[in-house]
Amino acid sequence: MKTKPVLIILAGIILAVGAFFFVRKKTTVAPGKDEVTQFLNGFNNRTKEGNADSLMAYFDADKKLKVLKRLVNVLTGISGPDGKGKPIANISLDIDASTVKIIDDEWLTASIPVKFSHGQLDAKTSVLILKIHTVAPHILKIAQVDARQFLTNYIAYENFVRSRTMAEKDIFSAITLKAFETSKQLKAKYDSVVWFAHVDDKTFFYVVKGHWDMDKDINRYKDSVIEPYKMGLLNPDLKEIIPVEYDLIHNISGTFPGLVEVEKDNKRGFYDLNGKIVVPVTYDQVFPVEDDSNLAILRNGPDYFYLKKDLSISEKADLKMADVFPKIKNITNHFNLYKSALAVVTEYNSKTQNGAIYISPSYMTDLNMIEKMKDFKNPLRKVIEDNGDEEDGLHEDYDVTFTGKGKAPENWFEASFYSIEDYFLGGRSGMYDKKNVVIVDNKKQRVFSHDIETDYEPDGSNLLGGVCDVNSFKAINDSLFEVKAGAILSLELHDSTQFVSGGPYYHYLAVKDNKLVELPNNRTFGFTKYVKMDDSYLNACYKLLIGTGHFDKRQEKTIDQITPEMLRYIKNEIYADYRYQFKDKRWMEVFADMQSYNNYSGTDRPNNVNVDDSLTVIDKYNLNWIAQKLKGAKTKPNTLAAR
Fold it and tell me: I need a labelling partner for 259 at 20 to 30 A (CA). Which of 319, 412, 555, 606 fits?
């Protein structure tokens, strides 16, 4: 029972989650200890036998899921986590030492100790966590796997084995080994050499004076303490072509061929590879454009300038961002980042951090198309890496697709929508998909962007598609914007034979401190918090699952307006947001997973018998409006009790 779009963004391998794979149904007897032990021993025996098909039968999930196949293949010794070749490490499960926790009559978790070994080398340990579901009396199935620590430790152990059994020349390319040696020499002059980049078989070195903390220094979190440092760039002759005085130096040719973007005190500019400043480091934003005469648009405060193709900079330009926006490079078409990210391979000066680092062009970060830093699979090293955090892991691919646009009244604001699909090493593809909205303010001539994470599942399965996958934008007033995006929903209604599986999810955004921020909202039907409803909110596409039993066996139905049963949910969701103590136990079940309803405390149950004093003016308006629709007559202001 979810009250938010399904956001499955967990590292490692996560399988069947939520309503798409199983139905909560009460059983009369919880599984006994012997029954659970027998199930786990059977799971272990299939693992030892190396029988992938037999092991698959233990999972209550779509057997076509690539992530499931990869996990099963690793456990049975068929292939490594990248899906290629035989695994290096031997895996053994210690069932006798497992920790089993009974959650209720239907659910239990089993934490199974795992040992990795290889020949005479030291063994390492890990854990595999299974969430097991009673699908029928005395019949257990694995509904969810948390393989984060398992996968991280396994890949680390494989790299450990490689480091002990392979020569460095078999792991690193010759140009990488040479760069390691040069970097050692440079430390006599610089505090650190953080990266090196290879251009036409020649190597450039990113050097730092001062204390370098990559996570803090690149991401610049608001409250982080930045110790003094400066970065510069050396050419293959070890001469400074970019002086050591910048906060960040981007990838060579990352934005323009042969140029290097630099940042200092939140200003941007460019050098060429001869050490000449091409664009002074005085601009707030740089937007490369596809234009016959110009390379880019430069913003300095409220003023704009053109960077011409001869690398000269124009006088102040009178331009409209709405006209220029479609010309921004890669903005209105599909593009794949992987090839451009590796046009110049930039490596860590490290034998354990093996990714190819990509410092995104600032305009792509400004438009929220990609994070400031990504680690891509490095073609110059024969290793697999996983840092335990999927966001810091190695990416194999990165797709951005333009999916539509919308205009606010009088063409004041324009919005463009993009889907972003991220693929990770080891077959973990589609797990970090998201949508992105970029808004052009035609009055202030500014561009804003925001992630609208919505509807994504492991391996790209169960993505919302078709007629209900909509994108729309509306300016509610000068400071409030509504973005509606198609999402996978997971809503149990009061009538348990009806389940909302997809439809629009509403996001409310505001511009604060020159940034577009999303306003807090725990409601699935978020318009009830920020907007006085009208009939337009009833007319929307939703997908329903009708019937009982397994969800994939239910009838799917598409509707074009909210039903009375859904309207009852919307009304009571307002009360649930204030932790109202429902008299009807079914409503308590329906909102059990709503964060503001139960605070996830486990013991502190909602106990507000009256929440009228907490209701806002908009809440009260919407409650009466909904009641009027449900009853077919006007509802008096004092009849606000939840039904």
Answer: 319
C-beta separation of 112 from 93 below 8 A: yes
Which residues face 614 on adjacent strands? none
Helix (H/G/I), strand (E/B), else coil: 603: coil
Burial class (CB in 10 A: 0-12, 13-18, 19+), 42: middle
- Across the range 338-352, mean pLDDT stands at 89
What DSSP letter does each residue of 358-420 carry, written as one string? EE--HHHHHTTSS-SEEEE--TTB------S-GGGSEEEEEEEEEEEEEE-GGG-EEEEEEEE
User: Secondary structure of 467-480 in the HEC alphabet?
Assistant: HHCCEEEEECCCCC
- Tell me which residue has tokens 């430069």: 298
CA nearest 196: which of 216, 209, 181, 213? 181
Q: How confident is the model at residue 636 (pLDDT cuts 50, 70, 90)?
A: very low
What does residue 244 show for φ and ψ, rounded to 5 degrees? -80, 80
Q: Provide DSSP, 296-334.
A: EEEEETTEEEEEETTS-BPSPB---HHHHGGGBTTSSS-
83 torsion bin: left (phi>0), alpha (psi -120 to 50), beta (else): left
DSSP assignment letter at 632: T
pLDDT at 91: 94
- Rounded Cα–Cα distance for residues 212 and 614 (Å): 49
Q: Give how far Cα 321 sits from Cα of 133, 305, 318, 589, Å.
A: 54, 12, 10, 49
CA distances from 133 to 59, 64, 103, 560, 640 (A): 10, 20, 10, 35, 40
Radius of gyration of the chain (CA): 28
Using pLDDT thresholds of 50, 70 and 90, give the confidence band for residue 578: very high
Strands (E), 4-106: 90-93, 99-102
**With bands split at pLDDT 50, 70 and 90, how would you rate the model's confidence at 26?**
very low
Per-residue DSSP letter, 137: T
Alpha helices in 499-554 (DSSP H): 527-530
**Residue 108 and residue 132 in contact, taking contact as beta carbons nearer than 8 Å:** yes
- CA–CA dist 369, 347 (Å, integer): 22
User: Rounded distance, CA 542 to CA 563, Å?
Assistant: 10
Q: Is 556 helix (H, G, I), strand (E, B) or coil?
A: strand
Name residue 173's amino acid: S
| Backbone phi, psi, residue 445, to 5° | 55, 50
| pLDDT tens digits, 245-303 | 999 999 999 999 999 999 999 999 999 999 999 999 999 999 999 999 999 999 999 89
CA dist 559 and 482 (Å) reads 22
Burial, 577: exposed, middle or buried (Cβ in 10 Å; 0-12, 13-18, 19+)?
Answer: buried
Q: Strand locations in 200-352, DSSP E?
A: 202-210, 229-234, 240-246, 248-249, 259-264, 267-272, 277-283, 285-288, 294-300, 303-308, 335-336, 345-348
Q: Are 244 and 209 in contact (CB under 8 A)?
A: yes
* Long-range contacts formed by 268-275: CB under 8 A, 24+ apart: 268/362, 271/233, 271/241, 271/242, 273/199, 273/235, 273/241, 274/241, 275/235, 275/239, 275/240, 275/241, 275/242
